[in-house]
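Protein Entry — a single chain follows
Next Lines — sequence and tokenised fold
***
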Amino acid sequence: MTSGKKQRLTIGCRARILKESSWYEDIGEQEILLKERSSGGDFAVIVLGKGVKELEKEKTGIVENEVAWVSERDMKLINRDFDTNLDFMDWYVEHEDDFCSDCLGWFPNNGREDPETGEDFKCPSKECPSNNPEDYDWL
């Protein structure tokens, strides 16, 4: 906030959840990108990984989650770098299927068959639940 006037948030802004928000328990200090606005004014957001400063493409850990619907009053503006933020969001939406659905790791072969083995490619992340089903009783 500057000059005592609340800065309005819109799609393409980068924000952070306020500590007094109920979302803070789930998202904490992580930054978010405002992706979509509902007719009621709340936002669907992309939750960035802990400590993410640059929106790097084709990298694990940049996107941690997506949530909806977060009220504008639960957020504070970080930046309005629309060129950078919207460019990343457009790229992410176009490549959403190139991330592992279990761990959100960068996985450009997701859903594709390995021509050498005839089996689906496995997520490259060693920590991915889909690669370690014995560690997860819900799989």
